[in-house]
C-alpha cells in the first residue's frame, strides 16, 4: 500500500460547473481505482480560474450595490466548498457504482503564511479568465489590477502568492486519513492566514496549490505526489519546434532545467519546484506531473514526467 497525494490543477478542471463536474467524474473513476488497489489517497486541488471567477462575481455585485465585497480568503474558502462538493459527489457516486463504502470528506483548510513574505509586494499567481492584451490593459487601468501573459494562453490577473509555511488543520487531515476516509484538503493551496497576537486571520492572497500539496505530501511522508494538470508531460523548449517531453528525470537534472528557465512562472515552474521540494523532503518518494485524464497510466509509469532523487 502506498500513500499518494494527488493534486488536481485548477485550469485542468474546466471553465464552468458543468465542465468541472464532468472532468471530476472522469478523474473520480481513477481515484477510486487507487483506493480499490489498497492505496491511501489524499486529494488536493487548485482554484486559479474558480477563485478569480468568484472574486469577479462578488466584486461586480458590490460595484452595483448588490452586496458586500468579498476578500480573497473568503473567495478561496468558497472555492474549496465548490470544488470539494463536486469532488465529493464524483467520488461518492463512483464508490456507489462499485458498491463500496468509504467516507469522503472535504476539509476547509487554512494554510499559514508569513505576513512579511516578499510575495505580497510582487503578485505572481494567475487567477480567473484569460483576456487578450487590449482588454487586460483596459481592466488594469480601470481597476488597478496587475495582468501578466500566462504561458502563451493570454493575459490573466495576478495576485500575491506567499510561500505556505504550515497547514493549520494538518492533525485533523492526518486523523481522517488514518481513520480510512478519502480526504480532500488544502484546496486552492489553502485559505491563506497569518498569526496576529497568537490568533489566525485571513490575508488576501492565493497560495500555489502545488507548493501546499508538496508541504502536505512531505509532512504525511507520502510515497508519491502526483500533480494532474492539462499537459501529459513537462517539456523542455515548451511550445517551440524542438520541444521535448521529459519522462524519468532526476532531481538534479530537473534543477538544471529549472535554472535554464525552461518552466513558465505561475504555471509549470511552481509545479516543478513543488516536486523538487517533495523529493528533497522524501528522498524515497516520487513526484509525477501529467494530465488529469492519465492518472491510471501515470501510476504504472506509462506516461507523465516522473521526478526522483
Ligand atoms: N515547460 C512546460 N512544460 C509543460 N507545460 C508548460 C511548460 N511551461 C508552461 N506550461 C504550461 O503550464 C500549464 C500548467 O500550468 P497551470 O495551467 O497553471 O496548471 P493548473 O492545472 O495547476 O491550473 C500547462 O497546461 C502549459 O500550458
Ligand atoms: N491555487 C492554485 O495553485 O490554483 P491553480 O492550480 O489553478 O493554479
From TrEMBL:
Catalytic activity line of the entry: hydrogencarbonate + NH4(+) + ATP = carbamoyl phosphate + ADP + H2O + H(+)
Keyword Chaperone: no
GO terms, biological process: L-arginine deiminase pathway
Family: Belongs to the carbamate kinase family.
UniProt KW keywords: Arginine metabolism, Kinase, Transferase
Pathway: Metabolic intermediate metabolism; carbamoyl phosphate degradation; CO(2) and NH(3) from carbamoyl phosphate: step 1/1
Pfam families the record matches: AA_kinase
Residue stretches making up the Aspartate/glutamate/uridylate kinase domain: 3-282
Superkingdom, natural source: Bacteria
Xref: PANTHER family: CARBAMATE KINASE (PTHR30409), CARBAMATE KINASE-RELATED (PTHR30409:SF1)
Protein name: Carbamate kinase
Gene Ontology cellular component list: cytosol
GO molecular function: carbamate kinase activity
UniProt xrefs under InterPro entries: AceGlu_kinase-like_sf, Asp/Glu/Uridylate_kinase, Carb_kinase
Keyword Kinase included in the entry's annotation: yes
Amino acid at each position: 500500500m502506498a500513500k499518494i497525494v494527488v493534486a488536481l490543477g485548477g485550469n485542468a478542471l474546466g471553465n464552468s460547473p458543468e465542465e468541472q463536474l464532468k472532468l471530476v467524474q472522469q478523474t473520480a473513476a481513477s481515484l477510486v481505482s487507487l483506493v480499490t488497489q489498497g492505496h491511501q489517497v489524499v486529494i488536493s486541488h487548485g482554484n486559479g480560474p474558480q477563485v478569480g471567477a468568484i472574486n469577479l462575481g462578488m466584486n461586480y455585485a458590490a460595484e452595483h450595490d448588490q452586496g458586500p465585497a468579498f476578500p480573497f480568503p473568503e473567495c478561496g474558502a468558497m472555492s474549496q466548498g465548490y470544488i470539494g462538493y463536486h469532488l465529493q459527489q464524483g467520488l461518492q457516486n463512483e464508490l456507489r457504482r462499485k458498491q463500496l463504502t468509504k467516507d469522503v470528506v472535504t476539509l476547509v483548510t487554512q494554510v499559514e503564511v508569513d505576513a512579511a513574505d516578499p510575495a505580497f509586494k510582487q503578485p505572481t499567481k494567475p487567477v480567473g479568465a484569460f483576456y487578450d492584451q487590449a482588454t487586460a490593459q483596459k481592466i488594469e487601468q480601470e481597476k488597478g489590477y496587475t495582468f501578466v501573459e500566462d504561458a502563451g494562453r493570454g493575459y490573466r490577473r495576478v495576485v500575491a502568492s506567499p510561500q505556505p509555511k504550515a497547514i493549520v488543520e494538518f492533525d485533523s487531515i492526518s486523523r481522517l486519513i488514518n481513520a480510512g476516509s478519502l480526504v480532500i484538503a488544502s484546496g486552492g493551496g489553502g485559505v491563506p492566514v497569518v498569526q496576529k497576537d497568537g490568533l489566525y486571520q485571513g490575508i488576501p492572497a492565493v497560495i500555489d496549490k502545488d507548493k501546499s500539496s508538496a508541504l502536505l505530501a512531505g509532512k504525511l511522508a507520502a510515497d508519491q505526489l502526483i500533480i494532474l494538470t492539462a499537459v501529459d508531460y513537462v517539456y523542455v523548449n515548451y511550445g517551440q519546434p524542438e520541444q521535448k517531453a521529459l519522462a524519468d528525470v532526476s532531481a538534479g537534472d530537473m534543477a538544471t532545467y529549472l535554472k535554464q528557465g525552461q518552466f513558465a512562472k505561475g504555471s509549470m515552474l511552481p509545479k516543478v519546484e513543488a516536486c523538487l521540494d517533495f523529493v528533497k523532503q522524501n528522498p524515497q518518494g516520487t513526484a509525477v506531473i501529467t494530465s488529469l485524464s492519465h492518472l491510471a497510466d501515470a501510476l504504472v509509469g506509462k506516461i507523465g514526467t516522473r521526478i526522483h532523487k
